[in-house]
User: Fold these one by one.
Assistant:
Number 1:
Amino acid sequence: MATIKEIAKACGVSTATVSKALNGYADVSAETVSLVRETARTLGYFPNAAARALKTNYTNNLGVLFVDGMGSGLAHEYFSSLIESFKVQAERMGYDVLFISQNLGGQPMSYLEHCRYRRCDGVVIACCNFTDPQVAQLVDSEIPVVTVDHLFNNCTTILSDNVNDMGKIVRHVCGFGHTRIAYIHGEETSVSQKRLAGFFKTCEEFGVIPPPEYIKSALYHDPKSSWVATNELLALENPPTCILYPDDFSFIGGMNAVEKRGLKIPADISVVGYDGIPLSQALRPRLTTLKQNTRELGRLAAIKLVQAITEPKTTFPEQIIVPGDLLPGETVAQL
Amino acid sequence: MATIKEIAKACGVSTATVSKALNGYADVSAETVSLVRETARTLGYFPNAAARALKTNYTNNLGVLFVDGMGSGLAHEYFSSLIESFKVQAERMGYDVLFISQNLGGQPMSYLEHCRYRRCDGVVIACCNFTDPQVAQLVDSEIPVVTVDHLFNNCTTILSDNVNDMGKIVRHVCGFGHTRIAYIHGEETSVSQKRLAGFFKTCEEFGVIPPPEYIKSALYHDPKSSWVATNELLALENPPTCILYPDDFSFIGGMNAVEKRGLKIPADISVVGYDGIPLSQALRPRLTTLKQNTRELGRLAAIKLVQAITEPKTTFPEQIIVPGDLLPGETVAQL
DNA sequence: TTGTATGCGTTATCAT
DNA sequence: ATGATAACGCATACAA
């Protein structure tokens, strides 16, 4: 691995001049610049990231923190899709992406400690349990942070439009004549709160008043708990005609519960998912669901994070809302 | 952020002693060690990764290189699942994981250059187009490499047991009385070659001889090309009774083609997928498929890579084969 | 326009 | 058992 020292020797100049030439400083003659650059290329020079980081305190590293309740990790398609998009945009802007975790090599280490250890220039946080004090610690630290789908004070956030997106679902369902609509929501998070708010608000618009027993709590990305909730709903004296699920993947549990009872979707019971993962479109009947724009969420998160890093003075906390799209399927019956 | 300097001052010893105490050298008194360690803890000290990397030439960073033909990235569940498992095991061993790419910030950069730039201690390669000369360049470099599902000379490899796993599929299908078995395989890779070999070999065991027109080429993770191939197969004068797909996700294309023709699975045509992603088990009828053990593939890749890094002398190129499991579904009819 | 010198935080060598 | 010091590769303040 060539260093600026070797380039300096090859060019007959000092390392300082090489450094300046390579970093586009004005006080170097044009010919020296081209000589240095050419030599660097032929020598296959690449700067040593560690040395540069030590000196400048910038690593060009972005951390990605994502922990979901179920510990699904990247198997959670919402996250994998979000992170993929974040990664693509980050690389486009010259940043590398690394995962932030607790416990590195047995060493218990807070998220913040891990970020400092790796000198992440910034971190994107996308997880369910934003109540974790370690997350708050990171948000309150000196490290620029962008969160996805959770609002912290003084922290830029990219929000999926949960209130209105849920409204789109309810509008769709009510448009098909449903009035007995149940909602199995995920764990108590701000996302769930917003979806619930959108749910009740839009129901109200249609004069629909869901009884308390129609509101069930389950976990995101957990078919089992949705299976349980579905069974409870279907066992009601006056069961709903339509069930909204926490997400497409959880719906699988609901699907199994419905099947087990010998009921048909949508003839006997209508259902709606959330996320719009490929699975939802492969199911027959095709699942009616709401496609979150994870591509855009990830892209914007990267852009805003880099902005916060490179232009700290002119950057202020923003809330950016990204709407999703209703994907009408075949799982909501016309009543 | 505390440094060893501050610890040294607080303890009234030199930085050298602190460093030794922290890194478990023998030539420090037990009491000094405990004093230093205790002080480090109370000061919230964490080593500066960049400084350490600069000095030791070890970063405790592992690179992950994965590029698939379709550019699906982490949306490809085989990869996301593999990488998740790799990441978990890597972290357990004290390594961080970062993505390797070409083109960082517009700078064209070979994979090898990216790895050197970031001083990756090792790299795991899991991609489809192993023919890329840049991949070969990386494999031939000084950086320890472990590949997944592709065999290079002089490089440890974790292989999914493609030959025998495909054998399991064929055995299952033949056991149900099928003799007209078509195979839509993915792009020309060593994985495809092995599956094809396993396919023909096991067919032969059962006295089945698939005619050339039953062997179709498509792309992995691409429903469209499998859709085309399925149509071609079903249009044959003497169509197959069973079609094997490149993977579960591609099968969606085949499913649509079958539906469009008004055919029923498995009454009119039997099908088998590959991978065993959650989607396959959510389909009705449940897709018969082969579950690759991505968890184990990723875990072993991490273990073997770290071994190659920490014990270069005693490490030699290995080929480790990880078998998958047939997941019998409901998409293969008894003839 | 170019070069000299210093320091980032750590580890390692060699004295003491 | 402990400490002074150099070095890793780079960027930069300052001198020339």
Number 2:
Amino acid sequence: MTSIRTRFAPSPTGFMHVGGVRTALFAWLLAQQSKKINGEGTFILRIEDTDKVREVEGSIQQIENSLKWLGISWDEGVDQGGPDAPYKQSERLAIYKEWAQRLIDAGRAYADPYTPAELEAFREQAKAEKRPFLYRNHRPENPPTWDGTQPLRFKSDPKPYQWTDAVMGNLSTGEDAIDDFILIKSDGYPTYNFCHIVDDAIMGVTHVLRSQEFISSTPKFLNLYEALEVERPTLATLPFVMAIDGKKKLGKRDGAKDILEYAKEGYLPEAMANFLATLGWNDGTEQEVFTVQELIDAFTLSRVQKSPARFDEQRLLWLNGQHIRALSLDDLYARVEDFWPVVAKNTDEAHKKQVLALVQDRLKTLADLPILTEYFFTEPSPDWEMVSTNKQLKKLNQEEIVTLLAATKAVIADIPESDFVAENIQDTLNQLLETTGQKPGILFSLIRLAVSWAPFSPALHDTLATLGKDTTLRRLTESIESL
RNA sequence: GGUCUCAUCGUCUAACGGUUAGGACACCAGGUUUUCAUCCUGGCAAUCGGAGUUCGAUUCUCCGUGAGAUCACCA
């Protein structure tokens, strides 16, 4: 494998959604793989800001933050430079002008003399005659010298194309797909169609990954590569990521979320990377859960799916749980810093870690932490409806409840402070089961509610051990008194 | 409308032309002495339709059908 150079080239028009991030991820994986195999591999972050109208303030920062969150770093790019700096297209206008001049000199570009109204008339005429509109059918015979105030058009060489796409396989089109498109707009900025090809050539990009919507523009690009006499990179067209319920491609207008929203919702970046990578790609084995390193090793363009995939949040949620459980306690602790319930604010690290260990298996997202742990940090309010609506406990009358809780208090109080650990508590409670003649479903459920007043909690003996002897006794007392 | 692309369980997918069409998510049932979750076991569930090629098509070809993309001085 030769050394791979890939790039991610977003336009700064807002936040990043999952579709865009997946394209970046695949390109990055390819570069990392190349780095690993032969020591060389480059991932470039280039900003395509040639549409000043659609540009959104702060987008570049947002894009960088999104990539960083996912663990994607770039070797060359806007904020850190590189051999082909600048990496912002609005700062490269002179380069595009120079390349455009080459095309003009070679007779492959000309000034567009028509007004927008005239163009519109051509279009309507074509529509009325039910034939496709092609600008080249109206190519002016003696175009004016280009002075930068008119758009500069590519003089295309229409012909059928056949090419191989690294994902889609063999593709072909007829000559109708080729037209005289605009290279440089009348505002002096180049179009995407032109400048991305120039930049990819200058930057030595070997693999161009982009989403499916560009597939029908590819023949135009092929035509331009020839006119520019530059080598064509490997083209890889990724299928769309579709909206969850609909059949439309996932876009900002169709409810696509900012990737950073998922961070706020408690998703792990490695889970998101795993999810995005396996959305439309698999390594041919039955492995479902991948670390980022495993993805780097296993990724191949040839195994990317040709058909669009739907964004399945259930699967993302499951993967997130898998990755949370794979974390060491210390690592998890570092990640949940912003997710503790506010009442845990002044709790010491040791206790928080103890609680965290108990709920690690129960977290689907980091944001589940408060509901799972709040009662460890603050006194819960007794809610006897939880007992009266419980299908096992509702048979108990008030007297029985008091008797059982009082008995529990007594045996708990008998455990020496220094022996108040899960194992001993379990033994004690098991004995209590025998002396009271109760089933675990009744006695344990009652105790669990009396000390936590939570809809669910970890194993009872673990919960009590973590609460500590004093707290356990206090809550039992409070619960009895509140009855 | 022109051009182009795609098509296996509800979803994500596996299957060098030969498999009882496999796995995962979700869902359902059972188990792990309370709950929730984890974990384990089992269950439900698919090759868009029609021709052809072949001893044999999920797989190759053609025609339909369905879905999507694109036809900008947006990227």
Number 3:
Amino acid sequence: MLLGGAYLGLNDRKMKILAAIIKDYIVTAEPIASRTIAKKYDFGLSSATIRNEMSDLEEMGYVVAPHASSGRIPSDKGYRLYVDQVMKRRKLTTEQQALIVQALQQEMGRMESLMQEMARAISYITNYTTVATQQTAKQHIIKHIQLVPVDGAVVAMVIVTAENEVRNCTVVLPMSASPALVAKISKVMSRTLGGVGVGELGNVLYISMMRHQFGQEGLDTAMVDPLLEAIYNALGTGEPQQVHTVGIKNILEFPEFADLEKARAIMGILEEKDELLALLSGGLTGDKIHITIGAENQEQILQNCSVIRAKISIDQQFCGNIAIIGPTRMDYAQVMSVLQTALATLGLK
Amino acid sequence: MLLGGAYLGLNDRKMKILAAIIKDYIVTAEPIASRTIAKKYDFGLSSATIRNEMSDLEEMGYVVAPHASSGRIPSDKGYRLYVDQVMKRRKLTTEQQALIVQALQQEMGRMESLMQEMARAISYITNYTTVATQQTAKQHIIKHIQLVPVDGAVVAMVIVTAENEVRNCTVVLPMSASPALVAKISKVMSRTLGGVGVGELGNVLYISMMRHQFGQEGLDTAMVDPLLEAIYNALGTGEPQQVHTVGIKNILEFPEFADLEKARAIMGILEEKDELLALLSGGLTGDKIHITIGAENQEQILQNCSVIRAKISIDQQFCGNIAIIGPTRMDYAQVMSVLQTALATLGLK
DNA sequence: TGTTAGCACTCATTGACCTTGACTGCTAAC
DNA sequence: GTTAGCAGTCAAGGTCAATGAGTGCTAACA
């Protein structure tokens, strides 16, 4: 509901009028005239009175008149007030809910496609561009290592982590190795490195420990370095962090990007995965949905846009971030609802 | 060089004039006037003569006048003639060559990033949008199978193929299995399935053979089905075919897409991975670079575009397809050179 | 017979100008 | 405090003429 009393100098009536301006502007993208509000909303006020209120709202910085004889459009400050104080959560249609639940439940478990499907569903429902990052490298703990002979000196190494994730890679040993030898190496490594976190592998302690063990078992210590390095590569850096962008073309639907120059600029940032990563990762906490409006965004190019972001986790495990990008007049209520539904669906698991 | 004699009714002079029109139009995107050609090219002809020739060219369908008193622009037929008969390969600058060589050599071996980097480099040099697909599922032949205990009934299966590619997956067995049992299953499977192509796995023959072998060795035949299925999944479908699109924003630089409607349409197709896959995969043979001009494209949306495509292979092994998409007045010569350089670089390996 | 100069004609583009209509701000009355 | 009414502002859109970039055609020329 609207706040009962005054807020930041805004009485209830001003709040109502501001909300009306914002709601209309979100739909039409045209300046809203006093008469429009007087006719459309049953405030029991004449256009003249609304004009006076709008004049006040402009003075306070909540709305702006693009030119002298035009209606008003909301300012960033106006949107901010609306988002923080006025906005009500929108109910999704059952189809929309079903869409989200379906998209997410199908992909649950496969994290990569999960984030991608989530972005796709959100973009489809909201018609805004959606960007999802996907979490990379966790702190893996080695549970079991097994080497498999491939060809001569080439062996495949399979690493099972404490979370039962399985990774594999190939290693070229300094010399050819018989299946029996490979099996032995396997056993020694598994014994030595079981329970060790991948972060600690670089530690000199483990390297010398491995050397020692290999020596005791009569194995060539020259194999230690390539083997350790391979583990590190397989678990450490992992795949580079992925970014999925869905619904780029939606940006072009908005009149605020009809100007080709602006469309190009936005397009540019949407193609720069690194910038997107930086944009997405900053300052997200807990399950909170984060909204930055217009000039609140750091990036020059996004100063005409709003970004709604959230951290995605399943079972307290961080999966990635998701962001919905649109013009400042974006439908905050709808996007919030969609995001919340998605988060709730993941929470059920 | 230009053809010495007549070709399709075009004498040398007409050819020269057509080439001039095309070259100019590729740069300016404006209709080319007879006087422009007379001044710019030293053909020793007056604008009136060129006008006559242009009139002939129009009659033959190689050029078009957008309106009564305008210069001429090339038709699809004109471009086709140019591409097939007139166009000379453009020399790349050393920086451009270096860029390609560097991008490709760094990524050689990692196929996924190879195609992506290739697309990126090409898009960067040419300023056209570039799409790359990445090859999936080959006809794998099983060389070696090893099971690794993970947790209770869960085992990791590592499959080494005849091409020494290593795949892994996890399988949930119908019952918990001790490490010794897992090792035994490993051995039996490796023996039974070594040398078998993954395509044949669905064959009843192999299923019953596996059952028989398992029975003989005192193993539970209930494990056969999940194990075979896992192999099939790991090698058969593999990861879904990937599509990388780079330089989407470049599309907006061209005046032919200043019309938002068209820009949106193109954007749409560039986001549809399935459509791109279909578009990219058709009818590519050998090392040949394939050009489709304007209306030669099947897709309605691409009728104002040209697509230059090639199959990418390393050591006769198919890696994926690559396509460069631009307006019909795209700089065919440059794109051809870039692609050829890329192909040659891969050939050196 | 091929080439060219010259002229009439066409048409997109541009800018000036005007009209329209959608607004607001202000003032005076309620 | 609210409202009616009016003057003033401004964007958008339409008309019109001027401009200039082109072509097509014809007649003259080599």
